[in-house]
Design a protein that fits this description.
Layout lengths: L3 E5 L2 E5 L4 E5 L8 H10 L6 E5 L17 E13 L2 E5 L10 H6 L5 E10 L5 E7 L3
Parallel strand pairs: 3-8
Antiparallel strand pairs: 1-2, 4-5, 5-6, 5-7, 7-8
The structure holds zinc ion (ZN).
Length: 136
């Protein structure tokens, strides 16, 4: 498994199994930290943006934005498709460029979709993965 590195402003972040706080995935089989790192490495247009949350990073308890009660995280999300709860494909997989959603559904290769959110603490780089069912 390879780690995923990216630069945001002047800081370099490295996502790896060691500094992954949790993966919240109750439904999708064959989809874990390693799959996510692999997808991020292969994805061509991965880009993180700043998002504000009302709870702090559990790891460093830091990251507070000035005097507000919001906390800064870097976030990126993409979608994945599943068949009988097994991971099939994501919107950042290179293979995704070659197929259409309509044909995947028509050929019964997929029957559900989920949104995957990656949250990275802007201070300590601890990250987390949330997987939630969502209709596309
Ligand atoms: Zn942190």
């Amino acid at each position: 498994m390879s780690n995923y590195k990216f630069q945001y402003e002047d800081k370099e972040f490295e996502l790896k199994e060691d500094n992954c706080d949790y993966i919240n995935n109750e439904e999708v089989e064959n989809f874990n930290i390693s799959t996510v790192l692999d997808l991020l490495n292969k994805g061509e247009e991965v880009g993180f943006t700043v998002e504000y949350y009302d709870s702090c990073c559990e790891e460093c308890k830091f990251n507070r934005k000035d005097d507000t009660k919001f906390f800064e995280f870097l976030e990126y999300h993409f979608y994945i498709f599943t068949k009988e709860n097994n991971y099939v494909l994501s919107t950042i997989s290179p293979e995704y460029q070659e197929v259409t959603l309509t044909s995947l559904v028509r050929d019964k290769k997929i029957d559900n979709s989920h949104i995957v959110s990656i949250l990275v603490c802007k201070n300590c780089g601890t990250w987390a993965i949330e997987v939630e069912q969502c209709d596309m």
